[in-house]
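Reviewers of the previous submission asked for a worked example of the structure-prediction workflow described in the proposal, so we include one complete record here. The input consisted solely of the amino acid sequence. No template or homolog information was supplied to the procedure at any stage.
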Amino acid sequence: MTYRRSRLAADHTELLWAERCVRRLPMLYARGVDRRDWQLVRSCFADGAFVAGTRDALPVDEYLARLRPGVECFPVTMHFMGNQLADVDEGCRSGQVETYAVAYHFQGDTAGADHPDNLVVGVRYHDEVVCTEQGWRIIRRSVSGDWRNGPYPGRGT
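From that input alone, the workflow returned the following structure tokens.
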């Protein structure tokens, strides 16, 4: 009976650790984007990953190449990551996580300035993840744009 309980505890510990790693991926992505650390952003994705964003659906490297200038045209961005629901398979080899986010994109000298080109969006990141030799990585992301206040850069409203 002791073996059964200790094996069960080990299984739960492995599952909890996997869920922690899975939940961390969208947070690391947001940190990378806001700090303009594109190497950190890329490290969140597996080779061969695919992203269906609010504006483009492309392989990850092409997607990030298009995302970067759109983000960097704003002097300040801040992603506030909220509710998360993560699931990991029993073998702790794959899973998914949905993360709600509010992303602030500010123009002007002061982040809080009432600038007409400021952009604030509410999105949900839907990530399919896998455990690789390098750790947990996003293999497929789709982004649901729930709401927007302000114009996308270069497109007006």
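The mean pLDDT is 89. We consider this example representative of the routine output the project will generate in years two and three.
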